[in-house]
Each structure stands twice: as structure tokens, then as C-alpha cells.
Specification:
Blueprint: H1 2-25, E1 30-35, E2 44-50, E3 56-67, E4 74-79, E5 88-90, E6 94-100, H2 110-113, E7 116-124, E8 130-136
Length: about 140
């Protein structure tokens, strides 16, 4: 009887570990990348990557400079979509690029970013809004 009990316990544990691993792989993951340049013709780019196996819908985004730590941080607006913005569907294992050229270009020089970091606030359908770090100019100081 104890052999059957041990066999059941080991099998249950293995199946639970497999299920936990599957849930860990399927969790919601978004990665943010950037490509900044001082030339307004080429522009700055922020890349939003969907690392999951399910598509998601980006309903709104906002880019800000942030200085300080919570709860005393101060945000300075950089950019957000205009009033004609429509949802963006980002397919599984793909990305979407936000481009900031000409008039939308923003300065990321040492002087401008000293002690601050660039964050993007993402609003994804069916989820709470969240902030992700795009660029940390504090590390340059």
C-alpha cells in the first residue's frame, strides 16, 4: 500500500511542476526597447514587444520623463497619441514601433536627461495600466 501512495505522491508532484511551468511560460510579458538619435529626421523609436503566445490590444500609451522616487516623483509629459488614435493589435511574438520624428522628436541628451528616466504608460485591454522603463538616463550620471 505504501508503494502505491508514494507513486501517487511523486506523480502528483511531477504533474504539478509541469502545470506550474506551463503557467509560467504563458504569463503576460511585454518588453520595451528604444532607439534614440539626436537627428530629428531619423527620429526616436520606442518598440513594444509582445513576448506571449496570445495577441493583445494596446488601447492607449503615454511617454514621460520621471525624476525622483515614489511617492515624491515628478513626471514631465513627452508624448501621447492624438485624439484620433485607434487600438493597436500586437500579435504574438511580434512588435510595434512608435516613431517620434520631426515635430514629435524629443531630446535625450545628457543635459536633458540628467537624473531622470523615460517611462511609458501602457493601457492594454482587459488589464490594469502599468509603467515600463524605456531608458534610464540616471545611469549615465
Amino acid at each position: 500500500m505504501t508503494i502505491i501512495a508514494w507513486w501517487g505522491a511523486v506523480l502528483s508532484t511531477i504533474l504539478a511542476l509541469i502545470k506550474f511551468y506551463e503557467m509560467w511560460i504563458a504569463r503576460f510579458r511585454v518588453d520595451i526597447g528604444c532607439n534614440f538619435t539626436s537627428l530629428s529626421d531619423l527620429g526616436n523609436k520606442v518598440i513594444i514587444r509582445n513576448l506571449t503566445n496570445k495577441p493583445f490590444i494596446l488601447t492607449y500609451w503615454k511617454l514621460v520623463w520621471r525624476k525622483g522616487a515614489w511617492p515624491f516623483h515628478k513626471d514631465t509629459y513627452i508624448s501621447a497619441p492624438d485624439e484620433f488614435f485607434s487600438d493597436i493589435r500586437i500579435n504574438p511574438c511580434s512588435s510595434h514601433e512608435l516613431s517620434f520624428t520631426e515635430i514629435e522628436h524629443f531630446d535625450t541628451s545628457y543635459k536633458e536627461g540628467r537624473g531622470r528616466r523615460i517611462l511609458i504608460e501602457l493601457h492594454i485591454a482587459g488589464r490594469l495600466r502599468f509603467m515600463k522603463k524605456v531608458y534610464d538616463a540616471k545611469k549615465l550620471a
